[in-house]
Specification:
By secondary structure, this protein is an alpha+beta fold. The protein has 2 domains: 1-48 and 236-275; 52-235, Sortase (Sortase, Chain: A, Beta Barrel). The chain is 40% helix and 21% strand. It has helices at 2-47, 53-75, 115-118, 238-274; strands spanning 96-100, 105-111, 122-124, 137-142, 164-169, 172-184, 199-207, 214-223. An 8-stranded mixed barrel has the order 1-2-3-4-7-8-6-5. β7 and β8 form a beta hairpin.
């Protein structure tokens, strides 16, 4: 009888432990989303009002920074009085927002690509245009994929040509339609170049998930702002995979626990019969 109780307790503990282990990524993602949501809501509240002189000045500085960056790329010579990167779009904790309707994503963009930045959302490469749009610009933002507790750009590979995403910098909201998707080696920087007359934003992440020896580049070109319905397309995302896997493992553990309990019960009856 004592052994039977021990087996049941162990089975229950195994089940609870397995569920806790499987739930960790989901709980981690929920917590990360909540933390980001606060910052995103705060940023949106800040830009709800009509353009203030400070906002106008900040965007003007960002546009000038991009112009200087383009001139440097074209001529190879530094400007005499360059605008410092850290002084651009520096009035808030984040420099912009990226929204990807197809993936149900809204993520903050911050200066630089340090691990501290990338743990909380997207980072901006400081040697590319800042994400305020305009001709002769190409901003590149990057995010992690394959994290256990946060998906960020894990589902970026599911985007297709023609899908759209949005970038909001202060009170300037821009729409980009995906016109190019490519996979390159980490040291391939040619695709990051500004193209004369174009307004590009590229979303970048490591690929394939878990190996990360290449980079997935999803480039969008600026298009007019107008409502565009999200395409009806089945998307088996990270969360769904986690839930399905958790359900499968839970059922498996339950079946094994039931089978062991039944086996122990039979053995007990068999022993009683022998006695």
């Amino acid at each position: 009888m004592k052994n039977k109780i021990i087996k049941i307790v162990l089975g229950v503990l195994l089940l609870v432990g397995g569920l806790a282990l499987l739930a960790f990524p989901v709980i981690g993602e929920i917590m990360s989303n909540q933390q980001r949501s606060y910052g995103i809501s705060k940023y949106r509240d800040e830009i709800k009002t009509s353009p203030t002189p400070e906002v106008v000045a900040s965007l003007k500085k960002a546009d000038e920074y991009n112009r200087q960056l383009y001139d440097v790329q074209q001529s190879g010579h530094w400007v005499k009085k360059p605008i410092k990167y850290d002084d651009v779009l520096a009035d808030s904790e984040m420099m912009a927002l990226v929204e990807v309707p197809e993936l149900n994503l809204v993520l903050p963009v911050k200066h630089g690509v340090s691990q501290q930045v990338l743990k909380k959302g997207l980072g901006h490469f400081d040697d590319t245009s800042v994400p305020v749009g305009g001709k002769n610009t190409h901003a590149i933002v990057t995010g992690h994929s394959g994290l256990k507790d946060d998906k960020i750009f894990t589902e970026l590979e599911n985007l297709k040509l023609g899908d759209v995403f949005y970038v909001t910098a202060l009170n300037r909201k821009m729409k980009y339609k995906i016109d190019n998707i490519s996979i390159v080696k980490p040291d391939d920087v040619k695709r990051a170049k500004i193209v004369a007359g174009q307004d590009y934003v590229t979303l970048l992440t490591c690929t394939p998930t878990g190996i990360n020896d290449h980079r997935l580049l999803v480039r969008g070109t600026r298009v007019p702002m107008q409502a565009e319905p999200v395409k009806d397309r089945t998307l088996l995302g990270y969360n769904k995979l986690v839930y399905m896997f958790a359900l499968l493992i839970t059922l498996l553990i339950a079946v094994v626990t039931w089978w062991r309990h039944r086996k122990a019960k039979r053995e007990t009856r068999h022993s009683s019969t022998k006695s």
